[in-house]
Design brief:
Length: 227
């Protein structure tokens, strides 16, 4: 007998080595631009931005600052590597893809949160942690990145035969406690949220969405796609 998973969902968790200096520069840059207010704030958010959360506009990866471009290069390198692995693409085939990206930063303070959502107009999304903030010790899920299990609607009948299934098969959601320098990649259709941040200082993260098409296609001449 062989037990095997079907309908699996690919995720990536990886870290940027020696990210301390870059994160310090990113944090200072983001807090400064948060203080400048409307110039950098997303003017038309698709969701309610509650008190305690700042969301920037979506052109972050076009900023020229070296710390931003270093993060951009790291995120895209890991994303293309994942795409190559799960699609079985060769390097030559990967270089025939071009991507368009929306990227932005969040600064979250006490009670700030982001409710459940997905990104239906993209194929892949990512979250990078610049600074997880200082969490209250008695709130273990403060600021956690939570992914809803897409199979959870099927959990209509629970008994001892399915209540403690192994991680690959469970219908429970997943919490990811991000640490500085960590990147998470996931399919954009996955519903996710950020639980309320309970702590001192700021939780600082970068998020991005990407979508792709063949390099040199007729459609690719109509917009600013980035490789």
């Amino acid at each position: 007998m062989s037990v095997f998973p079907l309908f699996s969902t690919p995720f990536v968790r990886t870290e940027l080595p020696s990210a301390g200096v870059m994160n310090t520069e990113l944090r200072a840059l983001f807090l400064q631009r948060e203080r400048e207010g409307a110039r950098w704030r997303n003017p038309d958010p698709s969701m309610t931005i509650n008190k305690g959360l700042f969301e920037s506009n979506f052109d972050l990866f076009s900023w020229p600052e070296p710390c931003v471009q270093k993060l951009h290069e790291f995120c895209m390198r890991k994303l293309f590597a994942m795409i190559g692995e799960i699609n079985g693409y060769t390097n030559e085939e990967l270089y025939k893809l071009e991507s368009q990206t929306h990227a932005w930063f969040h600064v979250t303070r006490r009670n700030g949160r982001f409710t459940a959502h997905n990104h239906p107009m993209a194929s892949w999304s990512g979250v990078y942690c610049v600074d997880p903030g200082q969490h209250d010790a008695d709130v273990p899920d403060s600021g956690v990145l939570h992914f809803q299990n897409p199979h959870q609607q099927a959990a209509m009948f629970r008994d001892p035969a399915n209540r403690q299934m192994l991680e690959a098969y469970t219908m429970s959601g997943r919490n990811i406690h991000l640490k500085a320098g960590e990147l998470v990649l996931f399919p954009s259709w996955m519903f996710h949220e950020v639980f309320p941040f309970q702590g001192e200082g700021e939780r600082v993260t970068v998020a991005f969405n990407c979508w792709f098409r063949p390099l040199g296609s007729e459609a690719s001449q109509q917009g600013p796609y980035l490789r």
